[in-house]
Design goal:
Blueprint (H helix, E strand, L loop, with lengths): L6 E5 L3 H13 L3 E5 L2 H11 L3 E5 L7 H10 L8 E5 L4 H10 L3 E4 L4 H13 L1
Parallel strand pairs: 1-2, 1-3, 3-4, 4-5
Length: 125
């Protein structure tokens, strides 16, 4: 009997970023669903219940902070760990992401290995 792959929702408005990280995560045994939309992220999270959400904070349709707040306000998705994925490296941005409900913050660009490490830490806690 084999375990089902761990599902990750990867949300970033840059298609090449989504695809590149998804390929890497899938090569490590994860099942990855991607989207570039905050609205879709909310729908996918509610219907698919991923183990972890990697969330770009600079989405165009709805910023990542609002997506995180809505996910944490919904009883069905509140327990899903969120890794904020942001180009901003300022400390106040990191604090703001954590206050919105993100569990970890990764500054991009980052190596796929660094992102995988943060995902693994979310799954272990």
């Amino acid at each position: 009997m084999t375990d089902a792959p761990v599902r990750i929702l990867f949300v970033d408005d840059d298609r090449s970023t989504r695809e590149g990280y998804a390929v890497y995560l899938e090569s490590h045994g994860y099942q990855v669903r991607t989207t570039g939309s905050g609205e879709e992220a909310l729908r996918f999270a509610a219907s698919e219940r991923p183990a972890v959400i990697v969330l770009d904070l600079g989405l165009k349709d709805m910023d990542g902070w609002e997506v995180a707040r809505q996910l944490k306000a919904d009883a069905g998705t509140a327990a899903i760990p969120i890794v904020a994925f942001t180009g901003a490296s300022l400390q106040h941005e990191r604090i703001s992401a954590m206050r919105a409900g993100c569990d970890r913050v990764v500054t991009k660009p980052c190596t796929p290995t660094d992102l995988l490490d943060q995902i693994t830490k979310c799954l272990e806690s």
